[in-house]
Amino acid sequence: MKNFSNLFVKIANSPRYLVLSSSLLLLTASAFYKFFEGKSFLDSIWWSLITASTVGYGDTVPQSLGGRTTAVVLVLVMILFLVPMITASFASKLIVDRNAFTHEEQEEMKQMLHQLLEIEKKKNKSQE
Questions:
Q1: Which residues lie closer than 8 Å to 29 by C-beta, 6 or more apart?
Q2: What is the pTM of this model?
Q3: Orientation angle between helical segments 2-12 and 15-37, nearest 10 degrees
Q4: Which residues lie below 8 Å from residue 35, measured CB to CB, with a gap of 6+?
Q5: How large is the average pLDDT for residues 90-101?
Q6: How many angstroms separate the CA atoms of 74 and 21, rounded?
Q7: Which 3 state secondary structure label does DSSP give 61?
């Protein structure tokens, strides 16, 4: 389960993986639709794009159980996974603070602060 979670995070944080997984999903759904419905591959791609975008013009509708199952899986994966991941990716790019210190910079500042405190302690002791 943890591997699935890590994969999910990796895809969500990479625009390249998002495009790749979306394309793979659309091509897979198109192939299944072509197989179950006997349509051309171009018609199947059209159907998967329209269905995945939830526009659903109704010009091409699955008739077989396999085609309908493919449609349900495609819509659910888009709505429950890919659209939220794409939205989260865009949102994180908008809210990330580019001026924030990196972890290494924070650690360096902590060490410098400790050094300054040590110098201050030694100075106070020598004045006493």
A1: 48, 51, 52, 70, 73, 74
A2: 0.68
A3: 110
A4: 66
A5: 77
A6: 12
A7: coil
